[in-house]
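Dear colleague,

Following up on yesterday's call, I've attached the two folding results inline so they're easy to grep. Please treat them as preliminary; we haven't cross-checked anything against experimental data yet. The first protein's sequence and C-alpha cells come first.
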Amino acid sequence: MVERLRKRYTAGGLSCAPLTHRRLSVKIDSVKRALILDFDGVVVDTEQLNYDTWNLAFDEIMGIHIETGRHALVGLTLDEIYKLWTPDDLSEQMKTTLLERKTVLYFEGGKTRLSPVPGCVELVRRAHALGWYSAIVSRSRRLRVLGTLDLVR
C-alpha cells in the first residue's frame, strides 16, 4: 500500500512523484512513466453533445425533453441516465432503441461539434517524446470512444 508521495520533481516539463511503499522504495530511474487520461471532458469535450443527443433521442422517441443542463450527466451510468429523463421503468428494448438513436445523433453532431480539449494533444506528444506510455480510460463504450477519436483526428 502506498503510504505517501515523496519528493516531487519535474521531468521534461511533466510533473511526477515517485511513490514509497512501506517495504520497498522504488528508484525513479527504474520506473516506466505513464500518462493516464480520462476520456470525456479531458481528452475530448463531449459533455454538451452527449446531453444534447440524449435530449434529442428522448424527445424523438418518447416526447420527453429536459432542461437540467449537461453537467447533470457527469458520472452517471446508463441506467441513471434513463432515470434522469423518466422515472418509469423502461424495457430493455426501449433502452436499446434510445441508446442506438442517441449514438447515431452523437456521431452525426460530432463531425462538426467535437474537438480535443486544448493542450491535450501537446501533452500526449510531450509524454511520448519522453518515452512515457499513454492510455485513455473511460466508462463509455469502447466503440464510442474509438469513433470519437476518429472524428477529432
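Below is the second protein, in the same order (sequence, then structure):
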Amino acid sequence: MTTIAYRDGVMVGDGRLCADTHILTDRYVKVRDCGKFIVGLAGNAESFEAVWKWYQNGCKVKSKPKGNYETLAYEKSTGKLHTYEIKGKSCVVLPSDEPAAIGAGADYARVAMGCGKSAVEAVKLAERFNSDTGGESTVIICNAPVKKKARTK
C-alpha cells in the first residue's frame, strides 16, 4: 500500500512500491497531475496507469477501471477534494480545507495532521510506523480554485 496525504493545498505521496513483503522500489510516483485533477493513488499498482488515464479522460462512471485501489483527487476547477474507493464503490466529496489521507498509513497521517503537522510531515511520520510507506515522496501543490467574478451593476 502507501500513504497519500492532503493538507492546505498540498498533496504528498510516498514512493515505496511493494509486492507481498518485498520492496520493489522506493521511487514510484503515486501522486500525479492528470489535467483537471491532482490524483494520489493507494492500493494495487497494477491498476494505477489505467486510473490516471481515467482521470485524464474525465472519469466517466461507466468506464471506471477495475482493481483494488483508492484515490484522493483534487479537482482544480472547483477546489473540491474527492476520495474514491473502488472496493466499496463509493465516492465522497471532502471539504478541501480539512486534512485527508488514504492508504495503509492513512491513520498515522490523519493523526499527525490533526496535531498540526503538514502533509509532508504526516507522510514522514507514517513511514516510521508503517513498513509499506517509505522512499522518496512526491509533493504537488494543488492549484487554487478559479474564483468567479462578482457581478457588478
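For the second protein, one point worth flagging: DSSP finds three helices and eleven strands in the chain.

Best wishes,
A.L.
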